[in-house]
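User: Can you help me understand a structure? I only have the sequence.
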Amino acid sequence: MKRLILCAFWAFCMTTMVSAQKYVGGDISLLTKYETNGAQYYDLDGKAITNMLGFFKQQGLNSMRVRLFVDPSKSGDIAACQDLEYVKALGKRIKDAGFSLILDFHYSDTWADPGKQWTPDAWKSLADAQLYEKIYAYTKDCLQQMVAAGATPDFIQTGNEISYGMLWGTESAVGKNDTNRCYTNSSAANWNRFFTLLKKAGQACREVCPNAKIILHSERAGNTNVLTDYFDRMKSNSIDYDIIGLSYYPYHHGTLAKLETALNTLESKNYGKDIMIVETGYYYAWQTSDFGSEGADLSKTYPISPAGQQAFTKALVDMLNKHKSVKGLYWWWMEACENGLDWSTKRVSDGWYNASLFNDSNTSDVGYPAGKAMPAITELKNFLDGETGINTINREPLTSNHIWYTLDGRRLTGKPTMKGVYINNGKKVLVK
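Assistant: Let's start by predicting it. Here is the structure, written out as tokens:
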């Protein structure tokens, strides 16, 4: 009887397309530059990693995130290098390796966050009406090029940490005049401008990538009142999106209990949206000034060490798995690794990021081998909590010789190049 049920189940799966329910991975936007400049990565056994995406797959991860700047050559920051050509190439690698992909539009030449939403240099002279059409045309063109490159995103962030709006204008102008920022007490005109920008960006997403999910990204996880005011406004103004994306850095946003309060509140509001933690991290060395009073208390529970980072990650995953609405977890800048780089000519950033999932230092001075994977990476897969990847069912035949799927139902752009088991023409196929 069991065999009959299993056979029927697999027969059903072979005639339908399935999609994964939960996603876990990280933002690896600098991976290409690290590799090009000669970063040396090692696995948990101390062996050199020659295929980073293969290593992430071995760790049970199934999704990756990449940011996109308009013209990062204007940024003045060596870590802001992700123009469209860079992102297309990295995005294709990610998709070919069988991961789902979040494309994170920054709509800026430089880092966009709650305190910096500067309009790209090439757009700064546009009036609002022109800017609405520009964000639509730019989003559409980028997505069309991503699709053509074999890097179709599965999730699209229309803005990065946009709690207070986006495309404010130039830094010097906004410093004198805050008319484009969106606070809880801002004018209706400010908010309506922001809503129009979101609608135009979302329109382009739906036209080019109708199967992709749109993420609205806020970093106000530590301020529930502001967070719910924001998403109340999105609901009342009929903003088209699918997923609430949150940044959660405990040293900025507070304890895990504080994050859980935010999650409980969002769930109680009945927005009808899934939630993803699209950015998180925790230090393994050199506690920084980012740690305020709450951070200092947190570090007593989770020491700033490789073991403490792992303990924090386990506690975070355990808490998130209590919330059925939370469908994604992404570690930010998890690929940071200056090990092996010539700091004078080949550095990738202007400093070490000691919340990476590798020892970012080029020495072992933190009591851990340089370039070696952190034990915290082994905890991330537990976010999937036994998920098979088979959750939602879309009626699409799997019986085509030129169409390939991963076992969790993600359609590939062609025949897979990575070793593993795939579905092709309604059958499991071992690719060696």
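Now, to help you interpret it: The radius of gyration is 22 Å. The CA atoms of residues 310 and 376 lie 4 Å apart. Let me know which part you'd like to focus on.
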